[in-house]
Amino acid sequence: MSTIDHKTLESLEFPEVLNEIASFSITELGKKSVLSILPFKKLVAIQPELERIKEFSASLNGENTIPNHGFEAIERELFLLNIENSTLEISGFRKILSITETTRILISFLKKYETFYIHLNAFSQKITYYASFSAEIKKVLDKYGFMRDDASQELSMIRKRLKLLKSKINSSFNKSLSQYNQLDYLDEIRETIVDNRRVLAVKAMYRKKINGMVLGTSKTGSIVYMEPQKTLEYANELSNLLYEEQEEIKKILKSLTEYLRPNASTLKNYQEYLIAIDVFYSKAKFALKIDGVMPLLTKKRKLFLKDAYHPLLLLTNKKRKEKTFPQTISLQEDNRIIVISGPNAGGKSITLKTVGLLQLMLQSGILVPLDPQSEFCFFEKILTDIGDNQSIENQLSTYSYRLKKMNQFLKKCKENSLFLIDEFGTGSDPELGGALAEIFLEIFYERKAFGVITTHYANLKLLASELPHATNANMQFNSSTLLPMFQLNLGEAGSSFTFEVAQKNGIPFNLINKAKKKIESGKIRFDKSIANLQKERTKLRKTSESLESEEQKARKNNKQLEATNTRIQDKLESYQELYDTNQRLISLGKKISTLAKNYHNNKKKKPLMDELFKIVMVENSKLKKNKPKLKKDKKIINIQQQEIKQELEKKVALIRKKKKTEKADQKKSIPLKSKEKLKIGDRVRMMDGNAIGTIDKLEKKKAFVNYGSFTTNVNISKLEKI
Question: What is the pLDDT of residues 626-641, one digit of tens each?
């Protein structure tokens, strides 16, 4: 049983939240279980529950969706299993089979994907599953939930006889039908059904000519409905067999019931497991609807709600397509109590209820709508005094009821308690009631309880400013439009704007002035000072926001200028490096051009290749030396390497082209003697070679030339005679 009383749950609208969650339940028992949810007694029970709901929420939008957990309740079957000699019906076994199979599928699925469903799988592993239950029921029932023919040997024999007998009945009836139809004893309809039995439609005048039993007549009496004698005999035998079948079925069901009876508690565990899964599912669906998250849980005494929404208000505004304003509020050891003041309809009560309701939801294992970096601790007691507190049943006035509540608070409010009081001190004379409320607040403060209260009393605002671990707060109010802004502002008390609101609502100015004269000038000045402070604070806030905006713009412009300067500097460096590269390439080109001219003049390959190799080695050594510098700009390195490579390729291509041209010129200048007809024994050499050999053999256009250490075949056109 929860330590938080029912009145607190009602005043914070917790049952309404449960109704919203229950609307997602897919089973009646699951819905009933949701509506009976109460906060956990210990912090250690909250974390695993929240983790399970978080995992279930993720599954609803993910690929590995958790299988269907729907089931029919087996409450009646569990009740019968606890009664000796009772027998379950076939429909009851169908329900039990469904529950056992659904349990098996869920446990198996969560085990298979335990990486994703760590906490749900841990919860499922607590259930001991017995496959024999399903196996035994499947021996009796087929996949459609009907009794199998082979459920027992006796039933198998009975059903075979039934099948044969039904065939005989049809055969005998069809034979009689054909016989009497040929004799024209039958009416045009020939046959019909009476009491689920086929009968002949006999003309009344021929009734005595047919051997059988009369089962009825038509309204006019012109037709007599008769069952042929042979068919009748078979039908009587069929009735006996059907009775035997029912008796055998009862015997089978009795045996199966006795098998399951000792395991009734296990079957109950299966059902409770599926109910729990339905509760997880309902909570997860609700969490998706309100954008609920899992905040941080702490053992420290700290409550930090960042951008928190009242879930019911959020849902209502979503339907109306209106904006909901989030609130941020913090309670901790050095700031245990917050006193919220300000005009009515500014959102004080909603802020108060938001704190209490979210705390209740979290302690009940329900994800809450706020920033996930919010922090919650655990409260053993949550005490509330919210709303209209008149009690007609107990004949108590509002103030009497509130005093009774305060007495309960004094008994229950301790260090690990959270108290929430709306319109603290109202219901009596402002001065006397305010003084008593001040004493109560001091006591709660001394007991180190956490609390949020709303009030219009100036003495409570002053007390909150004097106590070191208490804070004033106000709901922001636009002094120009006199409309609430629904924003909680910590650090200062709020004005009630009583006369301003009255004036806006059409109360004559002269009446407001008279009312002001009725009040002590000190109180008016005090309230006016608070109002002025609020106005000044609003102006300062706007100025601060404007300055921050200007500062951000200046920083942004400065960053843009720095970025532009950096880009320009990088471009200058790039251009300088490109210029250096071009100069180096020009120098390199000149060297290669000189080499090309030398080669053209002396036709010496070796010096050419040596010089080219030296040039390449020198360029490589320069690249190595400049490597750290080149790392600064990889694009420049790539450009330089590509240009050097392209320049070298151009020069080499030019040299090759010249070489080909020279070879072509040489071929053209070959003396006529090279074209002389060659014969065996001639001394020859290759036109582009120096080695001299002797022709050993001639075959068509090829000559076999002996060079002493080896012999090779060469095309005659490539040989010249020595």
Answer: 555 444 455 555 665 6
